[in-house]
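From the shared-data thread, chain only:
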Amino acid sequence: MFNELLTIWSDSPALSLATWLVIAITLLYAGRPHAHQLLRSSGRAIYATLRVAGVSIRRLEERVIARNHDVLLAMGREATEKTIEREFNRVNTIVERDLSQYPVLHRRLADTLKKIEGDYHESIDNAPLPPAWQEVLETISALPKSGDPAVASILENIKEVVEDSHDQTLKAYQQDTNERHGILKGMQPEWRTLSSTMKTVQQTITGLEDRARKIDNQMADYESMRKAEDKAINALTSSSLTQFFIASLVLAIAVFGGIINFHLISMPMAEMVGGSSYIGSVRTSDIAAMVIILVEIAMGLFLLEALQVTRLFPVITSLDDRMRKRMAIAAFTILVIFASIESSLAYMRDLLALDTEALQQSLAGTATGEAKFRWVPSIGQMLLGFILPFALAFVGIPLESFVHSLRTVMGLVALGVLRTIRVVLRLIGGFSNHLSKILVNLYDVFIMVPLSLERMVLHHREARASGAVAAPAGSADPQAVAAYDEPEAMAEPSAERKTPKPVRKARNSKKTDEESFGTEMPLTTGEA
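Structure, as tokens:
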């Protein structure tokens, strides 16, 4: 078919190909205006369509940003309100525990101070000082002694009486001083009691001051969230991402724990349920082991909800205290029962493994021996089967953090996807616009021969027209005048060379679109 078309004009393929080339160039030259218009309009249409799509995505992106901000602020306000409520509860506990006993404490302080004051007054009541016996003795000693033995005897008796009185008075003074010292020594426990009481009061007041300071900080953060400040939003975003990654890590650890628990009870469950029965393509024993693990996790979630550790189920949170207490007891009882069942299954697994090993040895013809310390792995498996359900019961705490932070992370991911799509649409629109220009120029390359001839003809006509305009001013040649009288004939080629007004308008509109494309849709800092 191709050879027939190639030789339709001549038997020579080269001549026939040249003929086809001339026909194609002629047709392309004839349809040049329409082809240019088609290419340009197609490029502008694609560019405008993608531009509108980019603007729509930009608006959707703004809505996603606003939604993320609302979610972050709502979560932050809720967490801050819980923290403030908890701090007020602690302040109330301190007030009820310590300051409610303040009247009794005040009475104790008053009694202690009164007793201390009385003991102090008793300690400062000094006993009468001994009389000046020394002066009396010196005076008696200074009296002149006569030779009368009666006078000497009287003076000696007076001296002895005075010395005895002095000794008795000194002993009384020393005894009184010792009594005052005993009173002061007895005040020491009272001082210690007073010091301990004052330290208790100081600790209570200091604790209240610390709680009040924390409440002030939380209230400042809460006010910042209410004002939707960028600082609070950035802090909440960072906190949410941190919680997401930490909760993901803990959940991954819990998954591995569940896998270990599954392999721990899958073998004995196959003996209980039957290893030959299947539900679909999965063994019934595997499904039963998985159900046991999931029920344990569910009981752990209900237990944490009843204790108000998590808040995943508002229905449980809204129950009264008595009903939640009963629910917590029921969930804990079921969890203990399942843990005991798993412990017995783990022990059964060890027995089955021992029987399998003995069977293999008997089939191999080797003597079976009693292994020492066989009870150690049995006890280990039993403890592992009993502890793992309680470990999996606490999975509700990271699960709650993961669920709450997942909304923020999904919003950020959606925002990143929208920004990527918008940038790609802008790139495709700009590429299509420039591609249309390239195709227009490439189209002119194929028909460059007739275009060159056209330019030569137009240049020749313009030269003749300029010469005809200059001839009437220099001479009265009739031919020049005749040429001057034919402006329409001379103006037609130049008019053909000029770009039509619709085309110029299209180019101006194209430039306007390109400028608006670069100005109305700026890249954000995150995209850059």
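The first strand starts at residue 278 and ends at 279.
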